[in-house]
Design brief:
Shape: globular
Structural class: alpha/beta
Oligomer: single chain
Number of helices: 8
Largest sheet: 7 strands, mixed
CATH architecture of the largest domain: 3-Layer(aba) Sandwich
Strand content: 15-25%
Strand order of the largest sheet: 4-3-2-1-9-10-11
Distance between the termini: 44 Å
CATH class of the largest domain: Alpha Beta
Radius of gyration: 20 Å
Length: 276
Amino acid sequence: MSDEQLALRDALERAAKVETLLIVSDFDGALSEFTVDPDDSVPAPGAIDTLRALAALPDTHVAVASGRDVRTLRGVTGLASAEPITLIGSHGAEATRADVATQGPLDGPQRTLLDELTADVAELIESHPGARLERKRAAVAVHTRGLPTDDAAAALAESVELGRNRSDVRVLRGKSVVELSVSHADKGTALTALGEAVGSDAIFYSGDDVTDEDAFRVLDVDAGDVPVKVGRGDTHASFRVDTVSDVVQTLKLLRELRQQATGRRRDVDAGDPLRP
């Protein structure tokens, strides 16, 4: 086991022992392999079952975060509304918990702006065959996965220009995607809100993309948080794994460690004569 793997395991062991643990992961690139068409994405084997197992443990809260809107995220994850797993969509603008979403309903000017941006993007992709438009609750995205490198770079550069120097538009760059958002929400603000809502003592977060850096920035390793970057590239995360499969294995390890820790806690509580 490498020094990096040992450091991650040590961090997981510490996090597993806290009173209240929050576990959150990005979806695409962390719980699911990338596909040319985002609509074809499916969870990696074991990913959702492991999240469900974690959510069933005492004082353990679980969420999936994504740039996708909540409705789409629910569809690709297969998580039912009755399940105790929070969905955070549109980079934190919406969530299945009202105390987590950081963007209320769009007002009139925001809806008008989003319609204008959507029309501009529709015109842009006409000149870039193979590029795809995705309309979201508070944003419109240009996807270029599968395009030749030069074609993709040109389409993404033009997309960035549509939002450049506009204070009312947030430009989000990701892997083979540029998103133009009329919301200024991000995964970091949503993660902070969820952590406060559940009273977490430590937070695990895994993600692979530029927008996940907002989440990594709000985490504190010294306080017991575990930020995990998936893949290569510069990052604010303190830990790193290489693949989606590694994320699933990391979550499985965390489940085992958490199960052991909460089991021991129940045994201690049961034997404490001072507890009711």
